[in-house]
Amino acid sequence: MVTLTEEQRMLVDVFDEVARAEFAADAFDHGGFPWANVRTLADHDLWAVNLDEEYGGGGMSEFAAVLAIETVGAVCPDTANALYGQTMVAPRAVEMFGSEALRQEYLPPVCAGESAIAIGISEPGAGSDAGAMATEVRETDDGLVLDGEKIWLSYVPASDAAVVWARFPDGNLGTVLVDLDAPGVDVHEHYTNMAGHTQSHLFFEDVPVPESHVLVRGKRALKEQLKALNWERVGSAAYATAMARCALEHAVDYAGDREQFGQPIGEFQGLRWEVADAVKRYAASRTLTHDAATHTHGGDASTTADAPAPAHPDRLRASIAKLHASETAEAVVSDCLQTFGATGYQRGHPLEYLHRLARGRRIAAGTDEIMLENIADEVFDGGGLPSLG
């Protein structure tokens, strides 16, 4: 595991203290954007920690955001989900690839905890197969327009804009920033997923796209954006690791209080070994996530406006961390639910909710199968096995 600096340890302590002392008691398993907790973090200057200070962020590294996601998620995974989405996904794409005018307009509300930015990649006919994407940006006499549809977008009701992946006339995929109230944008339907979270289906018909709202266009730029997806994978790994920690904290507390056969159940060897195995898995996930977050290539990890090649995690390490953490979250939550017996199986119990929530990590931000393909590609066609350094 990466040895934290004194400053990083202090950051973890502050996040932990604020989350445990001030998070809204009813924010766990609410199904929507956890505004109360988001604003609490923003009031303490703990929201958007890795976005540039010029826009109201913390100006720290992506590794700091990983630590924040892990620490917050041990208390409230829903808040960690929002933190992950608004530090490692769409807003970070705007900061990395958008113009200065675009950053000045869209990032300050996000950093202040007043708004969010969604991301649209998947389509009904294009999930893991991004090459099948049909949403397109067309050139017309009046400028660029966007046509198509996106599905499974999270936090659309909380968002003012979305980063949308689309195919450009040159055949390459790129991204544009679209205002959700722009003409031609139709929030067609909201779905409720297994965890009770809202996801949305968007349609785009002749949506005007100002040139200034094009984030990525062209083959070379697309390669940089594909590399940036590794940050989303690392963020997902941190989020999954946080779920495992949250489940373990609940289970260990319960095992110390619950008595059967004249003693706390935490004194039975079978349960102690089950918890020990879960802790082993959790520690491995955290180590792999930290390893991926700190092995970067390119520019400085705290991307500035003029950095032409911002730092990205190693694809192999990011895929390993994402896959392991996703599998670990589901396994550890399931084992911890078993500690509670029938109590943990009841609707509304934290472990019942975590069980539904954790399953999504093996799908979102890249399925298990895609991560296995990434790992195999890197081993057989790339640089070989992970380096020892």
Q: Level of helix content?
A: 40-55%
Proportion in β-strands = 15-25%
Number of helices: 11
Shape field: globular
Secondary structure: number of strands: 12
Which topology of the largest domain does CATH recognise? Butyryl-CoA Dehydrogenase, subunit A, domain 3
The N- to C-terminal Cα distance equals 13 Å
Largest sheet, spatial ordering of strands: 1-4-5-8
Count of discrete domains: 3
Helix and strand content put the structural class at alpha+beta
Family: Belongs to the acyl-CoA dehydrogenase family.
Biased composition (Low complexity): 299-309
Cofactor: FAD
GO molecular function, one term: acyl-CoA dehydrogenase activity
Give an overview of the whole structure:
It holds the Pfam family Acyl-CoA_dh_1. Belongs to the acyl-CoA dehydrogenase family. One of its GO terms (biological process) is butyrate catabolic process. Keywords: FAD, Flavoprotein, Oxidoreductase. This is Acyl-CoA dehydrogenase. By secondary structure, the protein is of the alpha+beta class. The protein folds into three domains: 111 residues, Acyl-CoA dehydrogenase/oxidase, N-terminal domain (Butyryl-Coa Dehydrogenase, subunit A, domain 1, Orthogonal Bundle), CATH 1.10.540; 100 residues, Butyryl-CoA Dehydrogenase, subunit A, domain 2, CATH 2.40.110; 163 residues, Butyryl-CoA Dehydrogenase, subunit A, domain 3. The protein is built from eleven helices and twelve strands. Strands 1-4-5-8 form a four-stranded mixed β-sheet. It has a four-stranded antiparallel β-sheet with strand order 2-3-7-6, with no helix packed on it. A hairpin with a 2-residue loop joins β9 and β10. The longest helix is centred in the middle third of the chain and has 39 residues. The radius of gyration is 21 Å and the shape is globular. It starts with 5 loop residues before the first helix and ends in an 8-residue tail after the last helix. About 3% of the residues have low confidence.
